Amino acid sequence: MQIHFYKYQGTGNDFVIVDNRSGEYSGLTTEQIEHLCDRRFGIGADGLMMLENEDGYDFRMKYHNSDGREGSMCGNGGRCLTAFARNMGIKGDTLRFIASDGEHDAKFRDNGWVELKMKDVDQVEVGNNYFYLNTGSPHFVRFVTDIQEVDVYEEGRGIRYNERFAAVGTNVNFVQETDQGIFVRTYERGVEDETFSCGTGVTAAALTAAPGEAGQYAIPVETLGGHLEVRYLRTGERSFEDIWLCGPATPVFEGNIKI
C-alpha cells in the first residue's frame, strides 16, 4: 500500500496524519500503524490521526496511539487535525468535529494558534497528594516542587501500571507551579513514555491548579515542547465548563511511504 501522509506537531506532540475522507486508509492494521509511528523504522510520531467524513460535522477525528491501538481523545492532536483540515480546504471561522469523547469546536487565532473546546468536567477525585479526572482521556495529576528532578518515565510508569490502573491505564502528569502559571510533564499511556506535551494532560493540570473559587481562569502552561494556555469557567469546587485548550499546531513535512 502506498500512503500519502502529513506530519504535524503541537508543542512537540507530533502526529502522522492521513486524509481518509475517501476511505482508502480504513484498512490499516494495528501493526501497520505502529510501524508508521516507529521513530527508527517508520515515520516517527506520538500517534496517527485520520481525517474522515461525518454527517452533520466538518469532519471526524480518528486517533491511534503510537502502539497502533485506537486511543481516547488527544487534545494536541485535535488542534493539529483542525489545522490540517483547514489546509485541506475545509472552511469556516469555527470548525466542528466529532471525536471519541464527543463534539468539539475549534477556532483559529491570527497568530496561528488553534483553540480547541474540550469536554466539560464535573468529577475530580482528590486523594493524598494527587488528583484524578477525565478530560477526554484519564489523567492522574501530582504537584511537585522540582519538576526537573522527577524521573517521569519511571515514576509515571509505576503509577500507570499499578494495581488500580494496570488494566485500562492512565496518563500521569507531574506539575510544578511557576511565577507565570504551571510547568507540566506527562507520561502517556499508549506511547508508554514521556512526551514533549499532552493536551488533555495540560488541561487536567490547569483545572486542578486554580484556586477553589468559582470564576473565569486563564492558566499559562509550559511543557518541554513549548507554551500553551488553558481557559475555563469554574462553576463549583469540582466542576468546570467552557474549557479551551489553546496553542500552536504546525505542519512539519509531507511525503509518501510504501508499507
UniProtKB/TrEMBL annotation:
Compartment list: Cytoplasm
Pathway per the UniProt entry: Amino-acid biosynthesis; L-lysine biosynthesis via DAP pathway; DL-2,6-diaminopimelate from LL-2,6-diaminopimelate: step 1/1
Site entry (Could be important to modulate the pK values of the two catalytic cysteine residues), positions: 139, 188
E.C. no: 5.1.1.7
The entry's keywords: Amino-acid biosynthesis, Cytoplasm, Isomerase, Lysine biosynthesis
Catalytic activity field: (2S,6S)-2,6-diaminopimelate = meso-2,6-diaminopimelate
Source superkingdom: Bacteria
InterPro entries: DAP_epimerase_DapF
Protein's UniProt keywords contain Cell inner membrane: no
GO molecular function annotations of the record: diaminopimelate epimerase activity
Binding sites annotated in the UniProt record for substrate: 13, 65, 75-76, 171, 188-189, 199-200
Active-site residues, record numbering mapped to chain: 74 (proton donor), 198 (proton acceptor)
A Pfam family the protein falls into: DAP_epimerase
Top enzyme class: isomerase
Function: Catalyzes the stereoinversion of LL-2,6-diaminopimelate (L,L-DAP) to meso-diaminopimelate (meso-DAP), a precursor of L-lysine and an essential component of the bacterial peptidoglycan.
Assembly description: Homodimer.
Family, per entry: Belongs to the diaminopimelate epimerase family.
Protein name as catalogued: Diaminopimelate epimerase
Organism: Chitinophaga caseinilytica
